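tool=predict chain=A
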Amino acid sequence: MCVFAVVVAALLGVQRQGLEGLRRTMADERANVERRSARLSEETSRQTEAVTDKAELERLRGDREALERLRGEVAALKKSVAETRPLPARKSRTKEGEPPDIAKDIVPSTAWRNAGYATPAAAIETALWAAAGGDTDLLMKSFILEETARRKAEELFAGLSVETRRRYAGPEELVAFMTARDVPLEGARIIASKDGSEEVQRVAVQLRNAVGSVRQVQIDARNTKDGWRLVVPRDAVERYATQLSGH
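tool=predict ok
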């Protein structure tokens, strides 16, 4: 009986030691799992922060670039406004109640009229009125091509494609179309010239564009049996040829 008790006790002791070892092993494994889980959580957190930081950085970079573009646009707008501010209006010399006189003041295009061809100033106003209204037939009647200009216009017209030539009745209509496109359609003033003769006179014309800038051009007018007509010089046709070529 004593021997049996000793054996049972020994077996129980061995079993208890095995259970204790198993518990320690399981505890160690649990600790390892918790450590790995903590490291994984920490790494995941760092990666998440890194991704968030990168996204935030990209957003901030985008905002900064947008801000720079906006500043550039604002600066360009300020410059544009400063450069294109209309010229101060001058007091009109036309009496109240009278129609605007293009020979006295810069008259807006809405007040231009078909003034006929009795004088160089009338011929110029008529041409301007036709250009503003896109009336190329009347505009063609308002000018004549000097001989070298006619040859250049014919050469220019002949060099166009067949399809393009079909749009115009001839070189004169092509020149009329280009002239109408070249005229600033905002306002004009005609300055009568003291130079010239009964046959030819040179007239200064001030043309104002939509932003208020004014440029002055010299136009020759010739007295014909049908009244005064504007003379289109060769250099004007050459300018139109350059415009059509895209250079």
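The first strand starts at residue 107 and ends at 108. The chain has two domains: 1-85, 107-245.
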